[in-house]
Amino acid sequence: MTAESDFLEAYDPRAFPATAVTVDVVALTIRDGRLHVLLVERGEHPYAGRNALPGGFVRQETLEEAAKRELAEETGLRPENLGRIHLEQLATFGDPDRDPRMRVVSVAYLAFAPSLPDPRSGGDASAAGWFPVDDVPELAFDHGDILAAGLERARSKLEYTPLATAFVGAEFTIAELRAVYAAVWDEELHAGNFHRKVLSVPGFVESVGATTERGGERGGPRARLYRAGDARLLHPALLRPTREDDVR
Amino acid sequence: MTAESDFLEAYDPRAFPATAVTVDVVALTIRDGRLHVLLVERGEHPYAGRNALPGGFVRQETLEEAAKRELAEETGLRPENLGRIHLEQLATFGDPDRDPRMRVVSVAYLAFAPSLPDPRSGGDASAAGWFPVDDVPELAFDHGDILAAGLERARSKLEYTPLATAFVGAEFTIAELRAVYAAVWDEELHAGNFHRKVLSVPGFVESVGATTERGGERGGPRARLYRAGDARLLHPALLRPTREDDVR
DNA sequence: TGAGTTAGTCTCATGGAGAGAAGGACAGTA
DNA sequence: TACTGTCCTTCTCTCCATGAGACTAACTCA
Fold this sequence. Notes:
alpha+beta; two-stranded antiparallel ribbon; 2 domains; Arc Repressor Mutant, subunit A; 6 helices; DNA-binding; homodimer
């Protein structure tokens, strides 16, 4: 392999045009029954003062590690506590003029988390906060497009994966799970049918054998507790009600 | 906005570590009832002589334009003839050591095309060819992973989008469409049920009003011709038979 | 002309999904 | 304590999508 090592030694990485690679994270959670996204306020140009998705340049690390690092920085969570947070690659945005400084290609990641503390109180990440996704200010760069892609991915993934369990605690009730679907899909769901459906999908949830300590805030019986099962795909899927408009 | 323009003038793009951005294309087509992928033989180090997905560095263009350009170069197709080819972003691969030369982040694209001529006879793209996806040699870089991701995406997208029509000509029979599903999914399909299903999904196909000139090669009546309808999503979806193994 | 093949239609059994309702268990209030 | 309203959980009924199988008619090839 002498030819190859010679080649590698003579290779000049600067021969290619400078392109920066960043990660941006669409971090979603549910607070007060509404879907929220994590946004930070930009302190620097360009778009100073505008809200943006948390993100930054990729260092000597994998893309996923970069996304985890950015998420940890902005939420104030320690990386080791990121375990229960679902993280997946969303898409890559690289239009030549999406950043006025230079060519920046951004790999967007999507994160789902159970309700997290307000990052404002976290100290370091000063100007960060959770915003309801249906009431988001205009964002910097093309982050509005990235957010839209993240929301669509989240809505779609609830259908055929047990992702909703990433939004709730380790033990949860069927009603809590239903609230997740209702918040992400922004749809009312038939409690009885949802209950039957969730329990009928193999591996979606498994019973803990206990119930909540007390009934709901406004009455009602104690609910049985479940934890996430071992299914990676829901079969059959929980299809969201499809509007004709979506199809064409 | 003087502050911002001052900032942009003083900005030094070289301040960030050099990272190259490439696109790689998983181009799929169907030949002789089998799913094929387009591969090129690398002439240069690293991985000289190994097969790889067609791809290259991104220039002053959008990522999708780069993918189209690479695809056109390797297939010998003129860019204006790429119209009927479906192209979508697949995922981005950026592990620090995936390319021994330098940090290379690759945005992978997925392309579906009707049967194309053999690129070997196209002249320019000398060492390119179509390989059956279930009989692919070991690939350069992490292109094996990229191909696997592309196959899974293709199989999944057939379920809920009219993507299969991108594999056939402008006018096609239901049997041809069924052959696409059978090839991509590598599954036998019940002809009667498939027929009923395809015609029952609104906007999937629309009748041309004519039939094939003659029956099948081994007999049978003439088949009615259809063209792609205006649906962007299939509802209800054509779900592939799910094996229990896939679920866990 | 006959045998074999295939497009298209149909029937039947099964099971999932939506809608509605009922049985309790529980919280809050009078 | 009694009452009211909430809501978790289960059941029933109906409709529809799906899989399996069969049948007819049109066509090719020998």
